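Hey team,

Filing this mostly as a record. A colleague (T.K.) asked me to run one chain through the structure pipeline before their review meeting, and I want the input and output archived in the tracker in case anyone asks later how it was produced. No errors, nothing strange. Just documentation.

Input sequence:
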Amino acid sequence: VRYRSLSDRYTSLAPGGTSSPDVEPASASNVRSSVCSIPRDRTASGREIEHKLTEREREEVRMIEQLIVQYFTIIRKQLQDTIPKTIMHFMVSYLARNLSSNLIGELYVEERFDTLLQESETVSKKRERACRMLTALNQAQKILSSLRDIPTD
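Output structure:
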């Protein structure tokens, strides 16, 4: 696989990543074949001279290739995790800023004051029952206090 530029080579290292339609996604063999035969020099006529790598250099290149692929895999996973979190952060922040002001704006409309301030039927029944209970308890307290005042012989 021949790449048009150095950036094409590195963008294709990410799994499935390509910078142009005619560049294949990276696989270990694609990366290895392109890295092991890097054109280094040109002759006076402009012909490329390829340097043959020693076994140690090939092993180092393979190790670097694996590290690069692992690095891009880690970065891709971090982006996959970070992007939804960032989107949620901005959505929640936007809602927090705008929702309360919109709700308050809807509440403080003068035409709605009467309906908003009306007591519901269940609350009014509970209040009336509590008032009757308070009256009954006050009467019971008066009766008990009057019984204390009666002398016992």
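Quick notes for T.K.: Residues 43 and 49 are 7 Å apart (CA to CA). Residues 55-107 form the longest helix (53 residues).
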